[in-house]
């Protein structure tokens, strides 16, 4: 079960822009991530590689935590991600991440957002 302080450390890492580093430091080796109803990606190395590939496609990303809740081993985080692509276009994702933690690390995560809404 994560402490509030541990969750705040994770959120601070993401907000600072260290997305791949946050996965390396805060996820279990066998962690999974799932986008909406897509099949989950499994394994921390796979998750880090995917995150780095996403970040290579953008010029910058600003991450904002709107709110977060810790309830035992379960965490909910409301994120807003604002992307600037290399083309100069921008996109915004308003997302809720539901996480299951094992001790002080994320074991399972599922993201909920409207995929048609990068504005």
TrEMBL record:
SUPFAM superfamilies, alphabetized: NTF2-like
Superkingdom of source: Bacteria
Ranges where the SnoaL-like domain occurs: 8-108
Pfam families: SnoaL_2 (PF12680)
Name recorded for this polypeptide: Polyketide cyclase
Species of provenance: Bradyrhizobium icense
């Amino acid at each position: 079960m994560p402490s509030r302080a541990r969750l705040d450390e994770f959120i601070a890492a993401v907000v600072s822009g260290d997305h791949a580093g946050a996965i390396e430091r805060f996820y279990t080796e066998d962690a999974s991530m799932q986008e909406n109803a897509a099949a989950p990606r499994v394994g921390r190395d796979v998750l880090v590689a995917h995150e780095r590939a996403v970040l290579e496609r953008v010029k910058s990303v600003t991450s904002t935590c709107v709110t977060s809740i810790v309830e035992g081993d379960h965490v909910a985080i409301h994120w807003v991600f604002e992307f600037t692509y290399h083309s100069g276009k921008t996109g915004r994702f308003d997302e809720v991440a539901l996480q299951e933690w094992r001790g002080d690390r994320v074991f399972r995560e599922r993201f909920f957002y409207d995929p048609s809404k990068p504005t």
